[in-house]
Amino acid sequence: MSAVGSLPFVVSMLLVILGLYALLFKRNLIKMVIGVSLIETGVNLFLVTLGYRTAGVAPIYTYAPATTVRVLPTPQALTLTSIVIGLATTALLLSFAVLIYRHYGTLDVSKIKELRG
Amino acid sequence: MKTEMSVIVRTITRCVYPLILVFGFYVIMHGHLTPGGGFQGGAVVASAFALFLVAFGTKALKGRLNPHLLQSLEEIGALAFLGLAFLGIGTAFFYNILAGSGSVFGGAVPSGPNPGVLNSSGTLPFMNWAVGLKVMAGIACILVAMLVGSRKEAEE
Amino acid sequence: MTALANHAPVLLIAAPLFAAFAAPLVGKLGERVRMAFTVAIMGITGCLAGLLAATLYAQGAAPIVYVLGGQIPLPSGLAVPIRIMLEVDGLSAFMVLLTALVGIAAVCYNISYRRGRSGGAFYDSLTFLLLAGVFGLVQTGDLFNFFVFLEVTSIAACALIGFRTWRNRSAEAAFKVMALYTLSGLFVLLAVGLLYGQHGGLNIAYLASSVRGAAIDRVALALLLTGLAMKAGAVPMHMWAPEAYGEAPASAAMVLVANSQASLYGLFRVLFTLYGMSIGTTAIGWILIVLALATIVVGVTMALIQKDIKRLIAFGAVSQIGYMLLAVGVGFAVLATRPAFGLTAITGGIFHMVNDIACIGLLFLGAGVIVRASGTRDLNAMGGLAHDLRATTVLFAIGAFALAGVPPLNGFASKLLIYESTFQLSPVLAVIAVVGSIFLLAVFLRVFQAAFLGPRLLRGVTPVPVTMTIAMAFLAAVVIGFGLFPGFFIDKIVAPAANALWQGQSGYIAAVMGG
Amino acid sequence: MRRALLTAAFLLVAAFLLFAAAEMRPFGEPAVSAMDDYFIDNAQIDVAANNVVTAVVFDYRGFDTLGEATVLFAAVVGILAMFRRTREDER
């Protein structure tokens, strides 16, 4: 059945790697926040893919189709939690970026270093 | 900085705003029956606030979105959630005391696929409402604080 | 009383959470009401911590398991725990006591520290959130729940670091630390995901019983170690720590150190309880030892060249994390052969945690008083503060000497255990540790001389409010008490914690899984 | 020098993550699902909820949700504190 093997996991990890790249090598604070956000998305995607069962339907009984294969509910709950945590993190990071901009008038990491001396 | 968008955007916002609110409240209310729940519904409602802020700018702050009220609402939502978790302390923290008790919200549901009963699942709908209130007020609070904070930039 | 004792683990998290949620609302009634409220809740929390520890020690070695939303750990006929559990063993109880100690000192100090400044309700709220997060972190028996509390502490900590919004370095430090904390949190989450995908459970005891050291398990271990070591502030990812401790307000800096120690607790929990013997303990133990030595060396040498008093203490705090990591690394390296000095090393490392938090906390609080009184952080601009701040001078001296490991004080008691045991594994380790301590003593002698002795350089020094002195005196009493009667405290609270690591894995698993 | 170290660390972590993903079990075939099967089978009995995910979020793993609400609360308080009005004399 599993023609795709572990490809979905690899794809979500690629997203994580992309985010890491942005976080480590970009000089703009907003781009770094985007990097963090990308890593979060990658990890969330990874969690959701963990819960899939081939040909499964959502584990909700209201007007559910008559099948017994349902995907696992726990990863969905975990992902929900981690999405909200990601939202909180991103919001706080962005507000720090606004504060930094207020102090230095720039979002470039290397320029901030120069200004600080 | 121009705080208001064009008349088209404002009119459309006025039309769509109540619909988004209704949808958000629906998602919160049916959290234990259909996909969704307190967080998702709260986020939908908050997106209506976001639309409002985008369309009307800081004008929206006057009267409609009072940051102090929002903050208090968020705290009340958080306290309500904590209180609901405390209800079950007779057995254990987070024990669902109402589920299957036969009272107003304790109705049992038939096993397997069914149309759903709104007053079921014990404390779950209350928790959905508490979290929904918390999330909508919280996100709105973040949006307002950031708007005011970044507007200060433009002035300075 | 028994009902209260039964629910103590969760109440210990719920009480600070309640304080955090309600503080801004209560604050609307006035500043004094809010102060009384925070002090009352912290008092209750402290009593609960004592009650929990007393209950655990009374029932012997078996951990306390608290199932959230249910009664029994395992539903009949199932081999996987389905609900979140709190599991308190000797080490958790020790960390709970340590956190309560820090919390009491911080809240007492805050009464006058934050008076008349903006955002007092936010500050109290964030402090309680951080405390609640640490309480959750050290008690939880569920790996995903651990991640959630890790994030609670991250966000509260970063908001506290950036709290002085008018300082440009605060915002910068907060951004940097937040990015790093998030990264470490996501590493932990990724590891949780990997373990869940492999074993289909999230409970630490369940995972510990099913981890066999397969490739995925090892990857998860590496991610967990990286994430937690990052958050504890070990070299090579230590650069955030001095900025964080240096920029945070004094009482928050102390709680931040407790937070770092909670991450260290997580590291120990993962190594000893979750993995234990299923991995090559010697190799990982030596990795920890090398990291620890690097942390000591970097912390001490960087402390030597600092001019800013808070950053200097911060580097001291980094070096102390190295000592704990060193001791426990030694313990883990010899876990397979189990010589007696392994247990001694772990005992020393854990004892050093509480000693470190008392001394570092005392120093940070003292530095807060100094900065508040003199209006500068620059050591070269200070001088002769002993004329005006008599009590602070004595208390700061106690903290500084204890941290450097001068004999009658508590730092010596734990460092002696560390030296003894590391010497038996390899004399080089002990020598580096001793040299580090000597340099630290030199650093703090210089600070003491620069800030307190000499002619009076500053005029119009602000007097110290009495609650701030009480908070410092409380910590100083801990420092002296632990220094004078180390045997008593090791016997009562440190030995159960060390045993929980050294041979507690099977008990930890059995408490949930049965048999 | 710094950049080279950073690149090396990045490449190491990337290779590591890809290795982990490739080692995973095949997609769509959970290795152990006893816990989740319990949820699917018993959510309607234990919690009387049709939506199993909500049952997990608010009942079986309700404590996580409390933590998550706490995180959001902390972020809101933090952001409000960041943009608060400060007094001139405390600077």
Summed up:
The complex is a heterotetramer of chains A (117), B (156), C (515) and D (91). By secondary structure, chain B is mainly alpha-helical. Chain B is 61% helix and 0% strand.
Report on the structure:
- The complex is a heterotetramer of chains A (117), B (156), C (515) and D (91).
- With 117 residues, chain A is mainly α.
- Chain A has a single domain (7-116), classed as Helix Hairpins.
- Chain A contains four helices and no strands.
- Chain A has helices at residues 7-25, 29-50, 73-104, 109-116.
- The model of chain A has no long low-confidence stretch (mean pLDDT 88).
- Chain C has a domain at 280-484.
- Chain C has helices spanning 2-27, 31-58, 90-113, 120-139, 143-161, 168-199, 204-210, 215-232, 240-247, 250-275, 281-304, 309-333, 340-374, 390-404, 410-425, 427-451, 466-484, 486-503, 505-513; strands at residues 64-67, 85-88.
- Chain C is globular, with a radius of gyration of 22 Å.
- The model of chain C has no long low-confidence stretch (mean pLDDT 88).
- Chain D is mainly alpha-helical and 91 residues long.
- Chain D has one domain (2-90).
- Chain D starts with a helix and ends in a 9-residue tail after the last helix.
- Chains B and D meet through helix 3 and helix 4 of B and helix 2, helix 3 and helix 4 of D.
**Count of the domains of chain D:** 1
Note the run of SSEs of chain D as H and E. Answer: HHHH
Quaternary structure classification: heterotetramer
Number of strands of chain B: 0
Main sheet: strands, sense, barrel of chain B = none
Which whole number gives the mean pLDDT of chain B?
82
Q: Give the structural class of chain D.
A: mainly alpha
Instruction: Kindly provide the radius of gyration of chain D, computed on alpha-carbon positions and rounded to a whole number of angstroms.
Output: 23 Å
Percent of residues of chain D in helical segments? over 70%
Q: Domains counted in the coordinates of chain B: how many?
A: 1
Low-confidence stretches of chain D: none
Morphology call of chain B = elongated
